[in-house]
Each structure stands twice: as structure tokens, then as C-alpha cells.
Amino acid sequence: MSFHPSMNVVSSRWVYKIKCRSDGSVERYKACLVTRGFTQQEGINYSKTFGPTIKQATVKLVFSIAVSCGWKIHQLDIHNVFLNGVLEEEVYMKQPPGFVDSTFPSHVC
User: Fold this and answer.
1) For residue 83, what are the CA distances in angstroms to 33, 35, 58, 65?
2) Is there a contact between 82 and 19 (Cβ–Cβ < 8 Å)?
3) Closest to 17 (Cα-Cα) out of 74, 75, 93, 79
């Protein structure tokens, strides 16, 4: 789709990571394309935000149940909390750096 001035377009960037084995040798190289959502403006690109949080009382309750039942407790970090979010607005993104189609440079994703 070709860019139109009425579109609210966000840019993107590549994030690179090197995954290492326990001995320090390189296991693999990873690249992830992420949108630069901080360029959006409230009231123009979105009308509300949502960040899932948990209350301390809930955490304490879950821990006490786990301890009393003898369950193992594991910790993890969630990096993609909005992966399955519902979008109500149309979102456009500039073509990724390094992957701009030379025949259609003004197109957006």
C-alpha cells in the first residue's frame, strides 16, 4: 500500500542478539524487527494503553499455595505481552531498514 499523509506510520528498527552456549561460544545470531511505538501520539495513533500488572497480594497468595502444596516455583520474563493484543486502529509501518523495495519506496507495511 502506498503512503498517504493521512496515515499514521510508525518506523521500525532491527535488534540483534548473540546467543552463547554455557562455555561462551556462539550458538546462533538472532535478529528481531521491532516497531518504534514510542513515536505514536495519544489521541492520534491510539486512545488508551493497557499494561497487564499483578498485585503483590496475589503473588503472595500464589507463593503460599505453592509452598503448602510442595510445588516447584519457576521464574520467567515475558517479553511479548502484547503479542496477542486486539488492535482497533489501522497500524502502518515504514518498510524495514535494509528491506526497502526500490520499485515501491513509498509503500508501507
Assistant:
1) 13, 12, 24, 29
2) no
3) 79
AA identity, residue 39: T
> Which tens digit of pLDDT belongs to each residue from 31-51?
888 877 666 665 655 556 656
Q: Which helix (H) or strand (E) covers residue 63, if one does?
A: helix 56-69
- The 10s digit of each residue's pLDDT in 46-105 is 556 656 677 889 889 989 999 999 998 887 665 655 556 666 777 788 888 888 888 988
Return the residue matching grid coordinates 535494509: 98
Rounded CA separation 15/78 (Å): 17
